[in-house]
Specification:
Layout lengths: L1 H9 L7 H54 L12 E4 L2 E2 L2 E2 L2 E6 L7 E3 L2 E3 L4 E9 L7 E9 L10 E17 L8 E2 L15 E10 L16 E10 L23 H50 L1
Antiparallel strand pairs: 1-4, 2-3, 4-7, 5-6, 7-8, 8-9, 9-10, 9-11, 11-12
Amino acid sequence: MKTRRVAASVSPRAGFSLAEVLLTVLIMSGIMLAITQILQAARVSRDTIHIIKETQLAGPAIMDMIERDLRGLVTLNRTRQDHLRVEDRVMLGLDGDSLDFVTQTDSLILRTDGDRPLLSDVNEVGYRLRPSPIYDDFLELYRREDLGVDDTPFEGGAFSFLHDRVKSLDIQVFEEDGPDADPLDQWGQEGDERIGLPTRLEISLTLELKQRVAREQLAMNYARKAMVTYRRVIRLPEALRVAEEDEIVILTVPQAPTAGTEVGGAAAGAEATSATTVGGAAGGGAIGGRGAGGGRAGPQAKGGGGRGD
């Protein structure tokens, strides 16, 4: 009977009540929610840092490269038609202008002739875009470089990849300086009166920065896409701009003298020397004649003096 009493007194206190279980679940849910929010904030911070780093590297680096090439623009020994070409293009409904010129920037694309690397201080450079084969709403940006300079400075060469999420590349050309100048979409086209070098260029490059994780590119995250536009105004030196073709300095390549030219030059020099020598001799004779005449005059005077005596 005593054992039964103990069992009856312990049985009502075994396990947790429903209220205690619900309270525990509520506390654990709050802890998990707090941890999830902390992790989400950490992911957002990570993506923000990634976007800032890409912003500071990709866009400005491309604009610096374009400006460096334009600062080294070469017009020496080239007609005004071959100084600069800007072409207005539209791809997938996006601005995809192209830019071509000759610059004295060192080669960036390595070429080899056997085991010997080939580099040049003057190259044909251009910037071109094409539709992205991966994304339907982006363009890819490439830098064109052709070693040296030939008769077609705006064609050929090798292409190096720069960026694959370009939304637009807009290049505006200004023939005159000042806030009231009208922008032009094209420059240096065949049959166009606007050739040579303009006063300034305004280049706008729009990039969409890529998210760090592929799962973050869902429709719910489209609002977080970072669209950044970089603008650069580049004024070309006035010393490079010429108004007429006759103001362009055209260098001529001297031709090596041939054997016939050397012989002819030597013969002509010998004839000139002989003529000078003969002339000098004749002059000496004349001088001698004058001296002889003086000598003859002397005896006549003396003879005259004798007759007088």
